[in-house]
Structure formats: C-alpha cells, structure tokens
Amino acid sequence: MNGRGYVCLIWVVGDRCAVNSYVEAVRELACEILELMAAGLRVPDTSMLSNFLRDSDSDSLLRLNHYPPLQLLQLLNTSNKIGFGEHTDPQILTILRSNDVPGLQISPQDGFWVPVSPHPSTAFCVNVGDALQALTNGRFLSVRHRAMVNSCRTRMSMAYFGAPAPNARIACPPELLSPHKPNLYRPFTWDEYKKATYSTKLGDTRLRFFTVQSDHDDLSE
Ligand SMILES: O=C(O)CCC(=O)C(=O)O
Ligand SMILES: [Fe+2]
C-alpha cells in the first residue's frame, strides 16, 4: 500500500521487449492525438505538443495498477472502496486501459462522479494532464478522476503518462494568447512542476501555484 488507497504500483521489469513495443505504440498514439489537438487549435507547428513526448529525455512512464477486490481487503480489516484517490494527472496526456472490471470515475464538476466503462479490447481512455492544460492556456482541461475497487473482482489498469523532459519549458504558444485570452499560467519547467507535485497532496490542484496571479504564492503554505 502506498498511502494512496489500495493501489499497488509495479514498475515494469518483466518482458522488456513486449513492454517496449507497447510503450512505443501508445507513445505514437499519444503523439497523433496531440498533433490533431494542435491542428484543432490552429497552432502553426502541429508537432509542438507531440515533440515533448518524442524528446529522447522525455520523462514519460508506464504504470501498472492492481486493485484487489473489496472482499479480500475486508479480510484484512480494511474497507476503503477508493483504490486510487481523486487527482489530476500532472503530465501532458495519459493513455489508459484496464481489464474488463469497472472502477474508473471522472469528475466533470465538483462532487459529481461519472463512471467510465472499460473496453479492454476496443478502447483506451485518454486523459488530458495538467501540463497540457497549461500548454493550451486552459483550452483543454485536465480531468479529475479516481479509481474504485470492485466488490468481488480484481481490477488492473495500465497507464502511459506522456511527459516532457525535465528541463522542458511549459509555456503556451503566442497564437493561443489574445487580449481576451491572456496567459493564465506563467512558464515553468517540468522539473519545477514535478517538485510541486511531490510537495503537495495527491488531490491538490497544483496548477494554482503557476497561475499568473499567484507568482508569489508559497508552495509550503
Ligand atoms: O486505475 C485507473 O483506472 C486509474 C489510475 C490512475 O488514475 C493513475 O494511475 O493515474
Ligand atoms: Fe490518474
């Protein structure tokens, strides 16, 4: 247990070849999605977002989550139905798939949770992360989500988090700025954002430390 519920984080060490092929394929998918998003935003350089993931120093990662069934957890005298507490993903884009056990929920609005049905053989769930929200000046919003445990079945999920390189500068392109849409976030590096992530709680909205108005906010408050 890692203090985030009953999620068991496994860093992949098994069949490297299969894992590498999977990561390459989902990275390509994420890049194509980001290029379509950039085109939709009419950014002249449509690879401006995908380049972050293609960078050889990209901090992208693959995470496997394992949620034992509630019945089993109750034998251990714990009955927390939340497997992974509510949060937004800090990175640019997440490509997630799970086995056929439901559990993922998204919150389009405070206090409301909408279940996302699993489609293990036909569909991925794609989450906008905080860095993409900043890069698009809030045109795309990072989605708050959580994962519940199932009462009798084990749930497993696999998430590819497409991230920038540590020293990459996260700044909205000038084409997305106008007097009516001024910059919401000050430029920051991915390293700075990761530090903010580590020094706050899982469910915190860390982008607030990077809003233009909060230039002088103290992370330790
Ligand atoms: O297991 C899930 O469906 C969600 C996992 C998740 O949100 C994460 O790993 O960041
Ligand atoms: Fe997540």
UniProtKB/TrEMBL annotation:
<dbReference type="InterPro" id="IPR005123">
    <property type="entry name" value="Oxoglu/Fe-dep_dioxygenase_dom"/>
</dbReference>
<dbReference type="InterPro" id="IPR044861">
    <property type="entry name" value="IPNS-like_FE2OG_OXY"/>
</dbReference>
<keyword id="KW-0560">Oxidoreductase</keyword>
<dbReference type="InterPro" id="IPR050231">
    <property type="entry name" value="Iron_ascorbate_oxido_reductase"/>
</dbReference>
<dbReference type="Pfam" id="PF03171">
    <property type="entry name" value="2OG-FeII_Oxy"/>
</dbReference>
<keyword id="KW-0479">Metal-binding</keyword>
<comment type="similarity">
    <text>Belongs to the iron/ascorbate-dependent oxidoreductase family.</text>
</comment>
<feature type="domain" description="Fe2OG dioxygenase">
    <location>
        <begin position="57"/>
        <end position="164"/>
    </location>
</feature>
<protein>
    <recommendedName>
        <fullName>Fe2OG dioxygenase domain-containing protein</fullName>
    </recommendedName>
</protein>
<dbReference type="InterPro" id="IPR027443">
    <property type="entry name" value="IPNS-like_sf"/>
</dbReference>
<keyword id="KW-0408">Iron</keyword>
